[in-house]
Amino acid sequence: MTTATGAMTRPRHPGLDRVLAAFLLLLLAVGSLCLWIGVPAAVLYGLSKLTSSSTQHIAYSFVAVPVAMLLFALLLFRVNALYLRVIAASRGMEEDGEDLRALRGPLELFLLASLAIAILGMAYAISWPIAIALALVLIAFPRFPRRGW
After folding, report:
1. Rounded (10°) angle between helices 14-33 and 54-91
2. Each residue of 27-51: pLDDT tens digit?
3. How crowded is residue 7: how many other Cβ atoms within 10 Å of its Cβ?
4. Residues in contact with 94: Cβ distance below 8 Å, sequence separation at least 6, in sequence order
5. Which of 7, 22, 93, 100 has the fewest CB atoms within 10 Å, counting from its CB?
């Protein structure tokens, strides 16, 4: 099929679009959990096999973990953009129109929910009293003072 501008368009398959959208949602949910838990754990494990001392391991970890998380987050942004394109195509929206820009993918929600799960898991692994104290401090002092103490 061609449009008036001569661009090729694919035929619409609503059932296939829904299955693909559901798969991409699942991929985003699992990927969001992996961003906060799996990527740091994998990088730390890999560095433990590559380095010979704990000092090197800590030093390399401060650089490697954020870089790996950033690269994985970029991959999640690409999957989110693909999800938005699939949803826009299934709804019959134009890819260049304002409607597509108004759509927001589920990535933000998945990232916040998976971060909360990761924090709760870390609190459970470390100690609940410490986690409760930290939560109370964050609630009581939501911002640091701007000018000294």
Report:
1. 160
2. 999 999 999 999 999 999 999 999 9
3. 8
4. 88, 100
5. 7
Q: What is the DSSP string of the chain?
A: -B-TTS-B-PPP-HHHHHHHHHHHHHHHHHHHHIIIIIHHHHHHHHHHHH-SSHHHHHHHHHHHHHHHHHHHHHHHHHHHHHHHHHHHHHHT--TTSHHHHH---THHHHHHHHHHHHHHHHHHHH-HHHHHHHHHHHHH-SS--SS--
- Asked whether the beta carbons of 35 and 107 are under 8 A apart, the reply is no
How far is the C-alpha of 113 from the C-alpha of 103, rounded, in Å? 20
Q: Which residue has the tokens 């799960």?
A: 117
Q: Which of 68, 62, 61, 67 lies closest to 44, judged by CA?
A: 61
Structure-block tokens of residue 22: 């559901």
Q: What six digits make up the tokens of 71? A: 């690269």
Structure tokens at 1: 């099929």
Take residue 65 and report the two structure tokens written for it.
Answer: 């973990």
Two tokens, residue 145: 């003072």
